[in-house]
Amino acid sequence: MASTTKKRANLEKNYFGYIFIAPFFLTYLIFQVVPLIDTFRYALTDAKAWYMDPNQAYNFVGLDQFKFVVNDRFFKDAFFTTPVMWIMGFIPQLGIALLLAAWFTNEKIRVKGQGFFKVVFYMPNIMTAATIGVLFLAFIRSNGFIHSFCVAIGYIEDARYPITSEWFGRGIVAFINFWMWYGQTMIVLTAGILGINPSFFEAASIDGASGFQTFGRITLPLIRPIMTYSLVTSLIGGFQMFDVPNMLATGDSHAAFGPKISTIVMYIKSIAYSGTFSVGRACAASVILFAVTAVVSLFLFWIMRDKDAAKAAKAAKKRAKEQAALEGGNI
Fold first, then answer.
1. Of 7, 97, 189, 216, which residue is 20 to 30 A from 235 by alpha carbon distance?
2. Weakest mean pLDDT among 93-107, 157-171, 262-276
């Protein structure tokens, strides 16, 4: 009875906190949870875009929309292209961010002007993806910087020809994603490294550990949760990339990339707002994207888990069971 009264008193004491966080949960419920439920519901129907027929009556078709999407050649191409462009951009993003974070937090190097460099590296993240897409469109156009450079090195034989290589287009998208986000990743990793207890580094220095040994044996294991966060959030954003590849594929760039750099979200948009205007198929593709993202994210969490901590927890659980069995036998 006393514990119940105490919990009630704490709840009444902290009710202002619940009031402040309520708008977030209401907004999330209205604009995230409800549309998500509708997406799953419409994925099982033959619904069309509402503006085609506001009074339409759609029918339940089961898994037919999923079968169509999975067998669609354009979806297969987008399903291959999207993770490839994300991986091409994320590997250098994480590598450069780790290198810069290690430099900026190294007491022996003491890089001067850290604030200036951090602002410069973070600056691309402030600009919108559409703005950067327009910038690179200007570079890719005929007589643009990238186009002229490709002509100069012989990659393009005639200056009148556009850039048509699908891997070139994927590389441009990957570079833009890397350039936009490596600064933000660097800031996050720097914060994680600065949060490590300095006594670990002091002990390593006393034991004569080199900089590489300290980084590999102390820094990397202790910032694994931060790296997992960066990896999973980058994965979610990468699988949902739309702005930059859409600009390069459909903009007036005189570069014949087109569907060669189409992503899953671009595919969803194309079948929902053009052609058959099939909202049901678009929702089915969205559900597949959601499922793939969730499975891959869980797999990454499993890969990046602290194996030593997991073994220790498993051993402790085993000892607790054995102790309980012994106590039960004694009784």
1. 216
2. 157-171
Specify the CATH number for the domain of residue 128: 1.10.3720.10
Cα Rg of the chain, angstroms: 26
Q: Which amino acid is at 255?
A: A
Instruction: For residue 62, tell me if it sits in a domain.
Output: yes
**pTM for the full predicted model:** 0.82
Q: Is residue 278 part of a domain?
A: yes
Least confident of 88-92, 133-137, 157-161: 157-161
Closest C-alpha among 265, 258, 251, 227 to residue 83: 265
pLDDT at residue 2, rounded to an integer:
53
Boundaries of domain holding 301: 39-312
Closest CA to 98 of 87, 86, 106, 88: 106
pLDDT of 11 higher than 60: no
Residue 265, judged by CB atoms within 10 A of its CB (0-12, 13-18, 19+), counts as: buried
Average pLDDT, the chain: 85
Short-list 27, 6, 23, 83, CA closest to 299? 83
Q: What is the pLDDT of residue 314?
A: 75
Spatial separation of the C-alpha atoms in residues 77 and 266, rounded to whole Å:
11
pLDDT at 310 over 70: no
Considering Cα of 239, then 242, then 243, then 248, what sign does the dihedral take?
A: positive
Provide the pLDDT confidence category of residue 182 given band limits of 50, 70 and 90: very high
CB–CB of 185/93 below 8 Å?
A: yes
d(CA 19, CA 1): 27
- pLDDT, residue 253, reads 47
- Asked if residue 28 belongs to a domain, the reply is no
Give the chain's domain count.
1
